[in-house]
Amino acid sequence: MKKTKEDGDLETELQLASCLPDGVHVAKRLARHFSNWYLIVYGYRTNRVLLRTLQCESRLKELLRVHLTLQLASCLPDGVHVAKRLARHFSNWYLIVYGYRINRVLLRTLRCESRLKELLRVHLTVASCRNRDRMDTESIVEISCEDVRNVIADKVGFIIETIIPEKYRVYEGNKKGVLKNPTAMCSGPNGILFIADVIKGVVVSARLHYPVDVSEICTGLKQPMAVLYTEGILYIGDLGLSQLLCMDL
User: Cβ(182)–Cβ(202) under 8 Å?
Assistant: First the structure.
């Protein structure tokens, strides 16, 4: 299958999702380069050893402060670390790509699908589909290989995934029974869903981490039948109380 322009755009967008390390790692990498190499800054070669020489010159001590512009000398990690960081995000969060939520666990679900398992299990091991926060490269190669991509592109139109309760892990915050009878749901901020449970008389928040974090945010309700979130306010329609409640989140 030829690589399309959209495939290229997707790869670029995903790389940008995690192209910058945090400030601590920027500083560490810069310090290592400054120690190991004679870097070119403003047209001059610089190295940590020069600081030792300058310390002997009292009139130059004020010049030893490193300009913030030097941080830009090593702002981007190499390609291997870009892929590793992307793989970690793909394992830990339900990312949005082209308006769809994606996560590594979806590959595990497809691998168990009766009509696809014979096609995918040859190329895709269960270990590569597990959502483990580790920096291995083998699983990246497996889940992104051409054979796997071709099967998904040709055979899969959509994927139905159970996010509550969690199917593949024993997780206290998202175990069987955490919801009894969900009756209404709405989207909240920052990848959070709000769900009303009419049997338990609660409204829960579900953060789209993996596994999904479920926590009760409103209890003591009678029959919550509707939820709506807008501009920082969560509205709850309780049929049993004959009330419209609101929570300032």
Answer: no
pTM: 0.64
In the chain, which segments carry CATH 2.40.10.500? 172-248
Q: What is the CATH number of domain 172-248?
A: 2.40.10.500
b/e 10-28 (16+ beta carbons within 10 angstroms → b): eeeebeebbeebeeeebee
* Rounded CA separation 149/198 (Å): 41
What is the spatial distance between Cα 160 and Cα 211, in angstroms, rounded to a whole number?
16
Sequence-separated contacts (24+) of 211-214 with Cβ below 8 Å: 211/166, 211/169, 211/171, 211/173, 211/174, 212/163, 212/164, 212/166, 212/174, 213/173, 213/174, 214/164, 214/173, 214/174, 214/178, 214/179
Helix 79-92 to helix 5-16 angle (10° resolution) is 90
SS3 117: helix
pLDDT, block means (10 residues), the chain with 249 residues: 50 50 60 75 74 57 50 56 73 87 91 91 88 72 90 91 91 91 94 95 95 94 96 95 93
